[in-house]
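Per reviewer request, we include the raw input and output of the structure prediction for the construct analysed in the revised manuscript.
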Amino acid sequence: FCPPSDHGTDVITTTKSAPHYPLEIAQSTPLRVLYRRSSQIRKRHILSLVATRLSSHWFLLRISTSAGTYVKEFVHGDCGRTYPSVSFMLGSGGGGVVVVVVVVRLIFIGWIVK
Protein backbone atom coordinates (compact mmCIF):
# COMPACT_ATOMS: atom_id res chain seq x y z
CA PHE A 1 0.00 0.00 0.00
CA CYS A 2 1.25 3.46 -0.92
CA PRO A 3 -0.12 6.64 0.66
CA PRO A 4 -1.69 9.21 -1.67
CA SER A 5 0.88 11.17 -3.64
CA ASP A 6 1.36 14.88 -3.08
CA HIS A 7 2.03 15.56 -6.78
CA GLY A 8 -1.44 17.05 -7.29
CA THR A 9 -4.26 15.94 -9.49
CA ASP A 10 -3.92 14.03 -12.70
CA VAL A 11 -3.62 16.41 -15.64
CA ILE A 12 -2.26 13.94 -18.17
CA THR A 13 -5.36 11.94 -19.09
CA THR A 14 -6.74 13.65 -22.18
CA THR A 15 -5.33 13.76 -25.68
CA LYS A 16 -4.82 17.52 -25.44
CA SER A 17 -2.65 17.18 -22.35
CA ALA A 18 -0.94 13.90 -23.26
CA PRO A 19 2.78 13.85 -22.53
CA HIS A 20 5.23 14.72 -25.28
CA TYR A 21 8.15 12.39 -25.86
CA PRO A 22 10.87 12.22 -24.83
CA LEU A 23 9.27 12.60 -21.40
CA GLU A 24 11.63 13.46 -18.56
CA ILE A 25 10.91 11.65 -15.32
CA ALA A 26 12.46 11.91 -11.87
CA GLN A 27 13.19 8.57 -10.21
CA SER A 28 14.26 8.25 -6.61
CA THR A 29 16.17 5.09 -5.83
CA PRO A 30 13.46 2.37 -5.83
CA LEU A 31 12.42 0.90 -2.52
CA ARG A 32 13.32 -2.60 -3.72
CA VAL A 33 17.01 -1.66 -4.23
CA LEU A 34 17.38 1.07 -1.61
CA TYR A 35 19.30 -1.23 0.73
CA ARG A 36 22.13 -1.57 -1.81
CA ARG A 37 22.08 1.74 -3.73
CA SER A 38 22.51 5.32 -2.55
CA SER A 39 19.33 7.32 -2.20
CA GLN A 40 19.31 9.79 -5.09
CA ILE A 41 16.91 11.36 -7.53
CA ARG A 42 17.88 10.53 -11.09
CA LYS A 43 16.55 12.12 -14.27
CA ARG A 44 15.58 9.55 -16.92
CA HIS A 45 13.71 9.74 -20.21
CA ILE A 46 10.78 7.83 -21.63
CA LEU A 47 11.51 7.90 -25.35
CA SER A 48 8.20 6.40 -26.45
CA LEU A 49 5.17 4.72 -24.93
CA VAL A 50 2.40 2.89 -26.77
CA ALA A 51 -0.54 1.38 -24.88
CA THR A 52 -2.75 -1.33 -26.36
CA ARG A 53 -5.98 -2.20 -24.53
CA LEU A 54 -6.38 -5.96 -24.13
CA SER A 55 -9.57 -5.87 -22.01
CA SER A 56 -11.30 -3.59 -19.53
CA HIS A 57 -8.64 -4.39 -16.89
CA TRP A 58 -5.52 -5.23 -18.90
CA PHE A 59 -3.31 -3.32 -21.29
CA LEU A 60 0.03 -3.89 -22.94
CA LEU A 61 2.67 -1.16 -22.80
CA ARG A 62 5.51 -0.89 -25.28
CA ILE A 63 8.06 1.43 -23.75
CA SER A 64 11.42 2.71 -24.96
CA THR A 65 13.52 4.35 -22.26
CA SER A 66 16.93 5.82 -21.62
CA ALA A 67 19.53 3.65 -19.95
CA GLY A 68 19.08 3.11 -16.23
CA THR A 69 15.32 3.66 -16.13
CA TYR A 70 13.52 1.48 -13.59
CA VAL A 71 10.60 0.40 -15.80
CA LYS A 72 8.48 -1.36 -13.16
CA GLU A 73 8.70 1.71 -10.97
CA PHE A 74 7.80 3.96 -13.90
CA VAL A 75 4.62 1.93 -14.34
CA HIS A 76 3.41 1.67 -10.73
CA GLY A 77 5.05 4.83 -9.34
CA ASP A 78 6.88 3.21 -6.40
CA CYS A 79 4.83 5.07 -3.78
CA GLY A 80 5.44 8.41 -5.48
CA ARG A 81 9.19 7.88 -5.86
CA THR A 82 8.89 8.02 -9.68
CA TYR A 83 7.16 11.05 -11.14
CA PRO A 84 5.32 11.15 -13.40
CA SER A 85 4.38 7.47 -13.64
CA VAL A 86 1.82 5.50 -15.64
CA SER A 87 -0.17 5.10 -12.41
CA PHE A 88 -0.20 8.87 -11.97
CA MET A 89 -1.19 9.46 -15.61
CA LEU A 90 -4.11 7.06 -15.18
CA GLY A 91 -5.22 8.88 -12.05
CA SER A 92 -4.94 5.82 -9.81
CA GLY A 93 -2.71 7.40 -7.17
CA GLY A 94 -0.33 4.81 -5.82
CA GLY A 95 -2.19 1.53 -5.75
CA GLY A 96 -4.21 0.98 -8.89
CA VAL A 97 -1.59 -0.30 -11.31
CA VAL A 98 0.07 -3.69 -10.91
CA VAL A 99 2.96 -4.83 -13.09
CA VAL A 100 2.39 -8.46 -14.03
CA VAL A 101 5.23 -9.14 -16.48
CA VAL A 102 8.18 -7.17 -17.78
CA VAL A 103 9.79 -8.52 -20.95
CA VAL A 104 12.90 -6.91 -22.38
CA ARG A 105 12.86 -7.39 -26.14
CA LEU A 106 15.81 -5.35 -27.30
CA ILE A 107 18.73 -3.53 -25.78
CA PHE A 108 20.29 -1.01 -28.13
CA ILE A 109 23.80 -0.06 -27.17
CA GLY A 110 24.72 2.43 -29.86
CA TRP A 111 27.68 3.88 -28.02
CA ILE A 112 29.77 0.70 -28.07
CA VAL A 113 32.50 0.95 -30.70
CA LYS A 114 33.50 -2.32 -32.33
